[in-house]
Design goal:
The protein has 277 residues and is of the alpha/beta class. Helices cover 44% and strands 16% of the residues. It is globular and about 50 Å long. The two termini are 31 Å apart.
């Protein structure tokens, strides 16, 4: 049933904690909205999973969020967007806002005509991403860089160790050597590594994170539907995880910037799809 109450919450989910970078921008853009967030860390990373598993997880989590009567869903995960967003939009009647790697603004912004895209292998190999390249890659060279291991570092809360820095160097330096002056963060986990990426890339390289654009699109969709909250009080946040609870509370608190109460995602939404963690 389509929710038409402007004071209903907004549901947001990701393969893990990376979508908190999107949630942060939604909070900045929409300070009065109530936000629900599911970190599917029990199944992270999505980037090395099959399309079937990713789609099943996206549908299961959306079913859970719909049970909380939201007015919109945000898929704060590039991999889940590429695999499952069309299925979600067919199955659920409420607005579904999703990620898109910022290839279009990067292609417009680059001065060297070379753009590097950092993302998971699943995102880069998806048909949705192929359509982006076809639409906006004609006049620029777009270098695709899979980044195995970076999601796992963020999921561990390891944002600045030498191991993390070495991984980032391994992925970023070859793009710079090929002339990239613009880097696209094609995974919502990667903004948490922006300080390391910036330190390696240097001040002359533009780093594009699409999270703020997603928050603006969410505002636009809610406004069109007459669903923006009219409350003048700050909105609330609620968090769930499919991973270990103590680990999630510590990590989500670290990334969000304060201590939080995180709840376990109810087991039917973890196990009913027949998936082992």
């Amino acid at each position: 049933m389509l929710v038409t109450n402007p004071e209903s919450p907004i549901g947001v989910f990701d393969s893990g904690v990376g979508g908190l970078s999107v949630l942060r921008e939604i909070r900045r853009e929409l300070p009065s909205e109530h936000l629900l967030y599911v970190a599917d860390s029990g199944y992270a990373p999505y980037g090395d999973k099959s399309d079937e598993i990713i789609e099943k997880r996206a549908v299961a989590i959306t079913h859970f969020l719909v049970g909380q009567s939201p007015k919109a869903i945000v898929v704060a995960c590039n991999t889940a967007t590429g695999v499952a967003v069309e299925t979600l939009r067919r199955q659920f009647s409420l607005p579904v806002v999703a990620m898109e790697p910022a290839v279009k603004p990067a292609a417009r912004q680059t001065k060297s005509a070379v753009v590097g895209v950092l993302a998971t292998s699943q995102t880069l190999s998806g048909s949705k991403f192929s359509r982006l390249l076809a639409a906006y890659g004609a006049d620029v060279r777009i270098l695709l860089q899979p980044c195995p291991g970076l999601v796992e570092q963020v999921e561990k809360g390891d944002l600045s160790s030498q191991e993390t820095r070495s991984l980032v160097e391994q992925y970023v330096v070859p793009l710079l050597d090929k002339g990239a002056d613009t880097l696209v963060l094609g995974c919502t986990h990667y903004p948490f590594l922006s300080p390391v990426i910036r330190a390696i890339a240097g001040p002359s390289v533009a780093i594009i994170d699409p999270s703020a654009a997603v928050a603006r699109e969410l505002r636009r969709r809610l406004q069109m539907g007459g669903l923006l909250s009219q409350d003048t009080q700050p909105g609330t946040e609620r968090f769930w995880t499919s991973g270990p609870l103590a680990t999630a509370e510590a990590l989500i608190g670290q990334l969000w910037g304060r201590s939080l109460d995180v709840q376990a995602l109810p087991s039917p939404f973890c196990l009913e799809q027949g998936l082992a963690r």
